[in-house]
Amino acid sequence: MAPTVSTTQFSDPAEVTEFVVNQGNGVKGLSETGIKALPDQYIQPFEERLINKFVNETDEAIPVIDMSNPDESKVAKAICDAAEKWGFFQVINHGVPLAVLDNVKAATHRFFNLPVEEKSKYTKEKSLSTNVRFGTSFSPRAEKALEWKDYLSLFFVSETEASQFWPDVCKNEALEYMNKSKTMVRKLLEYLGKNLNVKELDETKESLFMGSIRVNLNYYPICPNPDLTVGVGRHSDVSSLTILLQDQIGGLHVRSLASGNWVHVPPVPRSFVINIGDAMQILSNGRYKSVEHRVLANGSNNRISVPIFVNPKPESVIGPLPEVIANGEEPIYRDVVYSDYVRYFFKKAHDGKKTVDFAKI
Ligand SMILES: COc1cc(/C=C/C(=O)SCCNC(=O)CCNC(=O)[C@H](O)C(C)(C)COP(=O)(O)OP(=O)(O)OC[C@H]2O[C@@H](n3cnc4c(N)ncnc43)[C@H](O)[C@@H]2OP(=O)(O)O)ccc1O
Ligand SMILES: O=C(O)CCC(=O)C(=O)O
Ligand SMILES: [Fe+2]
C-alpha cells in the first residue's frame, strides 16, 4: 500500500533525504506520495541527462543473438564480435525457462511492494547479513546528484546463508533465477574464453570468471520530471559478465563505441541483455569492452530490472590472462585484487568508464 504522506511535508531537501535514504522509503515511497516536482538533489547536471546524442534505433542497434542456432560456431562468433565491438548484446532462445524469468519479476514486485518497515530491515544499517542490502540511488553519500532507483542487492555465499538471510518474498525465485542461468553463463564464458585461447573453463578459470555472483533487484518508480534526472547514471559494471532481465518498459541506453551515440536497448520478450564488465575487459587485456550505459527515468511507468553480476571471487587477483599476452601483446592493465577494485567502484559516484583506470598501467 502507498504511504499516506502528503508532499507538503517536505519543506527542504534535507527532509526528502531523511525520508528516502535514512527512513528507507526509497524513491518508490517518494513517488507514491504523489510528489509533483523533482526534489533538487535529484537534478542531474545538464551533460548527464539523456537528452542529447540519441540515435534512431534503425541506424544503430546492439546485436540480438539466437543461441539455439544449430551452427554453434556462428553463435560463438556473433557473441565474441559483439563483445569486442559493442560490449553489449541480447540473447534469445537461451535455454532459461520462461517461468523462471516471470517468477523473479513477480518476486521483485513483491519485494518492493512490501511496507517500508519490512524493506528497511535490509538497509545497510539494519541488515542481519552484509550480503543483503536494500538501498536507493548508487552511493548517496558520494553522489552530488541522486539517482531515481531503489535496489535490493543479494550476494550469494551459500544456499544456507541465502535461505537464512534473503527476504522470504523473493529468495526462492532469485536463487532459482541464478541457478537456472548458470548453464547459459558457462556457455557464454566458454565462447568468450576460446576466442582468447583459453582452452577450457577449468576450476581456475571458473573461479576467475564466475567465482562470485550478485543478484540485484532494481526498481525505478514513476518520476515527476524524468528529463531532469536519471534512473542510473553513466557507469560500466565491475563484473566479468552481467546478465540482465528487463521488463517491457525500456530505458536502458548504451554508449556506442563506434559513434559515441546513446543507443536504446529495446525490450525483447524472453531475452536477456548481456554485457561485458570491467573484470572481463581487464582479463582480456582490453579486447572485450566494458561499455558505459545508463537508465532513463520514466514519467508514466514503474520499471524493474534484475541483473545477475557474474564476477571473479573477491580474493582473486585479476590482470591480463597469460593466454592473451602469450603472443607478446603488451599488458595494459596491472594485477589487482578484485575486492579492492569493487570497493573503489562503490566508494565514488558513477562516473562513466573511469573505474577501469584504477587498473591501468
Ligand atoms: C547499487 O547501484 C548499482 C550497482 C551496480 C553494480 C554493479 C556491479 O557490477 S556489482 C558486482 C560487484 N561485484 C561483487 O559484488 C563481487 C565481489 N564482492 C566483493 O568484493 C565484496 O563483497 C565487496 C562488494 C567489496 C564488499 O566487501 P566488504 O568488505 O563487505 O565491503 P563493505 O565495507 O561492506 O563495502 C564497501 C563499500 O561499498 C559499498 N557497498 C557494498 N556493497 C554494496 C552494494 N551491493 N551496493 C551498493 N554499495 C555497496 C558499501 O556501502 C561500502 O561503502 P561505504 O561508503 O559504506 O564504506 C551498478 C550500478 C548501480 O547503480
Ligand atoms: O536497469 C537496467 O536496465 C540496467 C541497470 C544497471 O546498469 C545495473 O544495475 O548495473
Ligand atoms: Fe550496469
From TrEMBL:
It comes from the Eukaryota. Residues 204-312 form the Fe2OG dioxygenase domain. One of its GO terms (molecular function) is dioxygenase activity. Its cofactor is L-ascorbate. Keywords: Dioxygenase, Iron, Metal-binding, Oxidoreductase. The keyword Iron applies. The keyword Iron applies. InterPro entries: DIOX_N, IPNS-like_FE2OG_OXY, IPNS-like_sf, Oxoglu/Fe-dep_dioxygenase_dom, Plant_2OG-oxidoreductases. One of its GO terms (biological process) is coumarin biosynthetic process. Belongs to the iron/ascorbate-dependent oxidoreductase family. This is Fe2OG dioxygenase domain-containing protein.
